[in-house]
Amino acid sequence: MSPLVQKDVFLPATNRPFITTLSEPQISIVAPLYNESQSFPHLVARLNAVMDASPLAIEAVLIDDGSRDDTAALMQQLALADGRYQCVFLSRNYGHQIALSAGMASARATEALFIIDGDLQDPPELLTQFYQKFQEGYDVVYAVRKKRKESWFKRTAYASFYRFMRSISYVDLPLDSGDFSLISRRVADVLKQMPEESRFIRGMRSWVGFRQTGIEYERDARVAGEPKYSFKMLRRLAYNGIFNFSEYPIKLVTRLGMLTLGVALLYFIQTIIKKYFYGDVPQGFTALLFVIILFSGVQLIALGLIGEYVLRIFFQTKGRPLYVIKEVIRQQQRQPFL
Ligand code: UDP
Ligand code: MG
Question: What is the ipTM, given to two decimal places?
Fold first, then answer.
């Protein structure tokens, strides 16, 4: 198999050769947007402030995930007016994880990618703090949510999910951290080469390894507009986490099967003993019905669990590209990085 990473992969993150040129930013800030026209002006203002204040050469990669409002038009104007922005337009709505993957693939940063949400729930101003950790030699600096300014239900659901995931996952998933992170160029390169179709980026990021660390932060409320993740989309993300990063469900089915078999055997033995020693065979119609219904349910769940894996194999074997890019707007002659 060909190596997944470039030859500079063994260099510690901080010892990378200094290869920044006029057209190569050091940092790419990557933010996917879906119907974010309301938060867009806020986002651009905050990103501009971060880029203006930073001594680093920064580009901002914005991805339009098939928005239906005028997000795309706003992005177009911006990319044409400001050379620090690279705007990628997907052919339709693919979902946050895929949009993010598209953005990561387009990012040209030589040093690191800073991944944020487009609704400003992840403050872009934290770049300096994250970058400092990166300079200390960490390849992945992920954000750990200390407080979330979201509903009680959402907070509890997230907290329990992360704890559940951590207990069943075969990669070391940090608690309470989402996609908000700074990842080194080499980690981004590895992620780019991971072809999995049902993406759970925070899990894939852990899988890559190298030195990783967390920084605590308070997750803000979204700056404007409604959340774009529906309950269904969140559930899909959770399923991608569970089924792509754990063997637990399928093992559970086997264990459940063995347990059932064990109980059935004991019951069988008990019946035989009763029959031969006491001549007392139970009537047990209700019990029979109950057992049939119970295990039909268990079997259906088991089938469903197996189905989840089969479905993932099915989608993966199609080998389709993850997304289709409609257009990329970025300026070729870049002066702003002077
Ligand atoms: N998003 C996207 N495609 C989608 C749904 C969401 O690109 O299909 C973007 C959205 O514009 C936002 C980020 O992903 O910038 C996070 O979405 P959202 O705020 O709805 O999720 P939440 O913060 O509620 O988990
Ligand atoms: Mg949000």
Answer: 0.94
